[in-house]
Specification:
Elements (H helix, E strand, L loop, with lengths): L1 H10 L1 H18 L4 E2 L12 H13 L3 E9 L7 H15 L18 E7 L5 E7 H9 L3 H12 L15 E8 L5 H15 L4 E7 H12 L2 H20 L2 H25 L2 E2 L6 H27 L2 H29 L6 H19 L1 H11 L4 H10 L3 H9 L4 H20 L19 H12 L4 E8 L9 H15 L4 E5 L1 H11 L14 H13 L16 E8 L4 H16 L9 E6 H36 L2 H24 L10 H25 L5 H28 L7 H32 L21
Parallel strand pairs: 1-7
Antiparallel strand pairs: 2-5, 2-6, 3-4, 8-10, 8-11, 9-10
Amino acid sequence: MARRIAEVIIKYRVLVGILVLLGTLFFAYEMKNVRLYHDAGNVTPIGHPYAALHKKMIDVFGGANLVAIAMVVRKGDVLDPANLEKINRITEKISLLRGVVRYKILSIACSKLKYMFTTIDAEGTSFVHIDNYRKMTERVLGGDMETLSTMRRAIINDEKIYGNLVSKDFKGTVILCNFNWLHDYEYIFDSIKEITGAEEDANTEFHICGRPIELAYLKQSMNKILYIFGVAVAAMVLLLYIDFRSVRGVILPLCGGVMAVIWGMGMLGFIGFRIDVLSMTVPFLVLALAHGHSVQMMSRYYEELRRIGDKKEACVSAVAGLFRPACTSIITDSAAFASLALLPFIIVRSMSVVAATGILSILLTTFTFVPIILSYLPVSQKSMEREKKEVRGKIFVKMAYASLGKSRWVVMGVGLICLIIALIGTGRVKVGDLTPGSPNFWQDSDYNRAVEVLDNKFTGTNLYSIYIGGKEAEDLWNVELARDTEALQRRLERRPDVGYTVSYVNILKQVNRAMHDGDPRWEVLPTNRPMTMQFLDSFVEGSGPEDPRSFFELDFRQANIQIFMRDHLAETVNSVIRDTAEFLSDPANRKSDADIVQAAGLIGIYGAIIEVIAKSQISNIIIMLIVVLVFCSIAFRSISAGLIVFIPLVLGNFITFAVMGFGKIGLFIYTIPVAALGIGVGVDYSLYLISRLRDEMEGGREIGLIYEKAITTAGRAIFFTAATVTVGLLALVLSEIRFQAILGGMLAVVMMANMFSALLLLPSLLSWIKPKFIFRSSDRITMQPPPASL
């Protein structure tokens, strides 16, 4: 069948070539429809209860697209009138931005922050007064220094503000705001940059972070991805020239790779699919893989040309000889990527579609385009002479004989040692993000430096939300529920990684204190339902119409606890969720029958990601191995073929996990594709080598010569294929997007580990096990010692 397909391709090469070129032009045109897809929920596990709770709380309590602006001064402090005026102007301008949730703007110049105090009239009756920080700011800016003293004292006495919204040295303050629509991220970024830029001077600096800001920086970094793509292409061109030393050896694989990328990306544009930041790594992989298959095709073509002497027949023989391993590896690679769609992450599913489509296109571009063009090009005698001299490179001959006789035990022993070390490293792998700041950027980036300032000097930017839901309206008036909420807050506030917590309970205690002439001893919960009702009503009456919505709904049935965490490291996320769960599961801590449910906010989303990855990673790898087993067994009509291929693949993946473990790289949303992709892509090398060994075994001669022939031809092509793929992926290390660089580096490790396993460990195992699907003619195979020259 392979022979017949090859003959059809070459016989109708004009028609096939025109169809391929027309398809390339069509998909190149359709690439204009490819769009980048940004969505705050694209890393949220679909169907996870934390994700559902997160969405519910956004609907009930308002937008979740938080932007934090830290203002730090060098001289004076933030309450100096000149600095306070800047804060006031920034707060005012932000309130006018499109899509801002006005009642969620928080600064020391906003009306949402309240200062409660009591006065006593001539008859001795006390009255509770609620002043807000906006009015206080206006009086200070009008020259009222007494109000400035009151404002400073109020900040120091309010634990929600002092050390959180205002640094304890009064050198910095934070302005928090939320936006309804994330798709406005570029407008939000540009507007806030313009607002803060107008206020920045030698004494004042600003640090800005939040999801909209993060996306804007991502967009800027992604605009530079084409330059990195160019670096990858240049590096591949250099390797191809080193391999073939000819123009055609560079141009044909390059064209085949670019065509595969065009077909893959154009197909996505045609169906209206939008890609995201993780999918942007796929063109590098598709280009590198297409290059690799082109190298195999051209190497086999030159070999068949030397043997046959006719260009067309050499092309037919090359296509027929590579049909089985090429089709099997490409389909397996595509299936490996497609299996990632089983994971409940939109961003990973997007990547799986992009990659599976792009890799399948290699069959219709590289596997047909390269041999068709070769059948027309004149034979280069210079290239032929070079191939005759270099095809038996000494290093590949030594690798061939290292897999035979006693030396194979050394190879397998080294492989066993590598496996043991890899298992130790794998045991150190942790699920979750292990670095502070955004995983999208390096630690010295502008964005992560801003996160560092906000997390260390102020509240922390990592919101952890807990939902409180009564059975019916006005349940928040129940004293038992208020006590349960306060107990949970106190427990979490004892954690060093918690900046502060806030809920409607804080309002109750503040009103109570205010009603007792500001005496801090009265900052306690009311003791009965009528008093609780009175305090909440007082707050609602003295606030703006939407101010209470951040804390509770006006029917007094739903509320929330907002916990500001100082980081989102895996250990922190797991610990705080576990701590909360232990509290809520203990009947001794629960006096009310209301629903108190975790976990929403960024911490909840990260917790959901960690939980899903921990449960799904092993099952996903098992699915990958089953895919490899099925396709390898079908290709070679032997289950043992699939089982033997497992060994180098498993070793390669354990080595990759070891690099993650020793390098303290967490298994997170952006690194979970590594194992699956390593299995799918790494199987290529084993398939090409096994197929060539099987072909050489048909002749029935001395096994050393069989191994030598297979490894100096297919093995040599495998080496340059792996080198080409690795160089293409390593170009991603230049990316400003941290996870892209890590993903590229990890996949490069997978490629090299699988290459050495395929060229050394796999042949050693085969010569020891002697599986029948390869050694079926073993009665005609003789064993001779390696040449003395080795």
